[in-house]
């Protein structure tokens, strides 16, 4: 059932795109998104235009870097789950204290 909805939605999306310019029906969303950064850095509109633009630029960089970080964390989490498997998930991992080195069974001499 979900597959039917997904495919039907894709058909509708492609049909809409073939008849309209995508920038027209996404313009309001893009404008709202852009204004959200301005509202966060200068809600009272007291900064100069130059200062506001500089702060918006910095906030956007922070926003996109945070998204990238979350994507990396999600990929790492997914990768760990795939690599551990059911047997590894059943057995807890032993943590080695930081600075402690594994002991060797052979005698040095």
Entry summary:
This protein is mainly α. It has helices at 2-19, 22-41, 49-90.
Task: Give an overview of the whole structure.
- The mean pLDDT is 85.
- The chain has a domain of 63 residues.
- The protein contains 3 helices and no strands.
- The chain has 109 residues and is an all-alpha fold.
- It is flat.
Topology (elements, then pairings):
Blueprint: H1 2-19, H2 22-41, H3 49-90
> Helix coverage percent of residues?
over 70%
Structural class of the helices, strands and pairings?
mainly alpha
First-to-last CA distance: 70 Å
Report the principal-axis shape: flat
Beta fraction: under 5%
Q: Given the structure, what is the number of helices?
A: 3
Poorly predicted regions: none
What is the radius of gyration computed over CA atoms, rounded to a whole number of angstroms? 26 Å
Average per-residue pLDDT, rounded, comes to 85
Order of helices and strands: HHH
Number of strands: 0
In terms of quaternary structure, the protein is: single chain
What can be said about the biggest beta sheet? none
